[in-house]
Amino acid sequence: MDEGKPAVSRRNFLAAAAASGAAVVATPPGAGQAAAQGAAGLAKSAPTSAPSHAQMEAEIGKPIKVAATMAEPGGRPGSDYMVDVLRALDIDYVATNPASSCRGLHESINNYAMNKKPELLTAMHEEVATAMAHGYAKVSGKPMGLLFHGTVGIQHAVMAFYNAWCDRVPMLVMSGNHIDAAHRPPGIPTTHAAQDPLSIVRDFTKWDDQPGSLQAAVESMMRAHKIAMTPPYGPVCISLDAHLQEGSAPASQIRIPKMTKVSPAQGNSEDVRDAARMLVAAQNPVIVVDRAARTHKFQGLLVELAELLGAGVVDQLGRQNFPSRHPLNQTSRARGVAAAADVLLGLELNDFWGIVNSYSDVAEPKQGRRAKEGAKLISINSRDLFLKANYQDFQRFQDVDLAMAADAEATLPALIEAVKSAMTPEARAAAAKRGAALGSAVAKQVERLIGVDATYAWDASPISTARLSAELWAVIKNEDWALVSRDVRLSNWPHRLWNFDKPYQYIGDSGGAGQGYGMGAAIGAALAHREHGRFVVNLQGDGDLMYGPGALWSAVHHKIPLMTVMHNNRAYHQEVMHVQRVGNWRDRGVERAHIGTTIENPHVDFATLARSMGMQGIGPIADPAELGPALRRAAQIVKAGEPVMVDVVSQPR
Amino acid sequence: MKSMIPALVIGLACLSASVSSARADAARGKEIYTKVGCYQCHGYDGQGGNTGPRLAPEPMELDALKTFIRNASATAMPPYSANLVSDGDVADIHAYLASVRKPPAGKDIPLLNNP
């Protein structure tokens, strides 16, 4: 969105507009002008904050003629074709923060699409809008459109694109621009124009384009969608110049291609067979899984494979990969289980090195091998199909014994069949025995976690994260619930206490760990859950919300039912610990870690903040005895179809 | 004379409080525990979490605790030299950890028996 006010004075602007209007009229429509501006016959755009035609005429005291291209006989507005493409792509929503360089497409959504398919979502910051698209895609399985101002709008969104890139999430970003220096409006639109506006996101988007004609634009949008939706998924951006949006063209000149679905890459049959043999021959096979579940099918496939092999599953919780209470789910014993494996199968891991090796963040960092010497490593990872150089989210290089550059979900059915054929009666018996042992080990662990560990600080204030999670579970367990945030900052208590067994109950985290993701992503995810009538919970960090608190308004405005529980530890707590560590290492002070890291003096009153934007707010709740009733009240609000905020003064982790 | 007795009693009470604080003062220990950052990784009540193990109630012996925090550099915990937390402070922290009330048993907490 435009941040500033017009840089030119109103009077100068009017004079310039009058002059340019006269120049347009001087050129016969359709002739030289069309040749100069491309086959589609393109209109010029006026500056942002433009006064009305009547105001302009009144101010300069004479009639002003404007370009006739919008009304060209037989022509339809260029941006109407763009809407046709969005419909062909089955895009339901476009989140935007309004801006002049996108006004053509914005108007088409309002008045041509009548704000239905796609429907506009108003966001108060492009970072929030992008987070909304991020959460939405992980629940709905398809991209949301984003409509942003070129330059400053994209600049606002950049971090959130990085999160989406790291998290392998598709989204279709459309931004405006005014590339034609000879015809674009002076002042702000020129300040916001760029010759290569998407260069700042090229390192962490899968593809971008700046098409030069309307036909190229519709093809480009189609191609972008295809690329975004080919695993590994990722964000794509198209710069749709204002002259393409605001120009027009006869329908005979524009062909909208049909949507192309691409099947994801599958591991080749020889490698799949070899992997199956290695897994079946293993004494102790372990499966580690991260951003693997692309669709609801994955969880069932992984259960089948793990049960066949009697293999422990370590879930890195990038998605809802595996039921939390399945006896083979060894996530709470991850370290020991992975270290004991003789064959490790990594499915869509972002950091295989981190499974095989350890790194301790101590004064003189230490590295070492954690996996068993000689353990065989198998990787199925679509990221091997597509990497970029600059940003290092691909992590440290890990050599493996068998690597399939393929989508794990698409490869699992063949792997399951290959395992079945490689299985012998002895292997089956060994798998059953191994599975039972893993099951009883984890049952003991869980008994201790819930029966003992969760009880400590039960009545404490600030409220313990175990208590918070247990109180919440009591409220949601009989609902058709879904969690739309990560719970690592609550010491994983929800994953320990709640029964995650449905494929839509969890969506992972931000990917790039860029703050300012939580609330927007929760709103987007809750929007996708809304049509299924699910009860959606967001465990929200206080620091994270304050990057873009305007997100609260969007949830209310668009009537998105969502229970946000503020895990209010009144700090950027991770950073408190980081500063503390260094103070200790340097032996010079452990009492000042709060400076620059805590969110105190004053405390943020999140319930009041929510109320200021029309959202019901409850809290701050610091007494654990008050928490249950507060959550039950909040649940009623969510069931009535509204968002609500419950501010819980919590233990740090 | 009569009126002096309560004053004397109060004075003795103060004296005994200061004597015991010279040994180990749980209330002061709680303040230090927070001030020097133990709460960050172990929780305000020493309950532990994924950033540090449980410390309370029933903490390890004072000497063991002191040895651990002074020499923690080989572990995931940053070390606390005597320069940062004196022996007296550690004793008070220990007293605080020992004073944390034992929680009810898991089986007696309905919310933890709620599959």
Mean pLDDT reading of chain A: 91
Helical run tally of chain B: 5
The structural class of chain B is: mainly alpha
Quick one: how many beta strands of chain A? 20
Report the largest inter-chain contact: A-B, 46 and 38 residues
- CATH fold title of chain B: Cytochrome Bc1 Complex, Chain D, domain 2
Strand content of chain B: under 5%
Question: What would CATH call the homologous superfamily of chain B?
Answer: Cytochrome c-like domain
Largest sheet report of chain A: 6 strands, parallel
Are there runs of chain B of 5+ residues with pLDDT below 50, and where? 1-22
Q: Note the total helix count of chain A.
A: 24
Rg calc of chain A = 28 Å
Q: Rough shape of chain B? A: globular
Structure summary:
The complex is a heterodimer of chains A (653) and B (115). With 653 residues, chain A is α/β, with parallel strands linked by helices.
Features:
heterodimer; A: 653 residues; alpha/beta; Rossmann fold; 5-stranded parallel beta sheet; 24 helices; 20 strands; 40% helix; B: 115 residues; mainly alpha; Cytochrome Bc1 Complex, Chain D, domain 2; 5 helices; globular
Fold topology:
The complex is a heterodimer of chains A (653) and B (115).
Chain A: H1 10-26, H2 32-37, H3 53-60, E1 75-77, H4 78-88, E2 93-96, H5 103-112, E3 119-122, H6 126-140, E4 145-148, H7 152-166, E5 171-175, H8 188-191, E6 207-209, H9 214-228, E7 235-239, H10 242-246, E8 248-250, H11 269-281, E9 285-289, H12 297-309, E10 312-315, H13 334-340, E11 343-347, H14 352-356, E12 357-360, E13 366-369, E14 376-380, E15 402-404, H15 408-422, H16 425-451, H17 465-476, E16 481-483, H18 493-497, H19 518-530, E17 535-541, H20 542-545, H21 551-557, E18 562-568, H22 573-585, H23 606-612, E19 616-621, H24 624-639, E20 643-649
Parallel strand pairs in A: 2-3, 2-4, 4-5, 5-7, 6-7, 9-10, 9-11, 11-14, 14-15, 16-17, 17-18, 18-20, 19-20
Antiparallel strand pairs in A: 1-8, 12-13
Helix pairs in contact in A: 4-5, 4-9, 6-7, 6-19, 11-15, 12-15, 17-24
Chain B: H1 4-23, H2 26-35, H3 38-42, H4 62-70, H5 87-99
Helix pairs in contact in B: 2-5
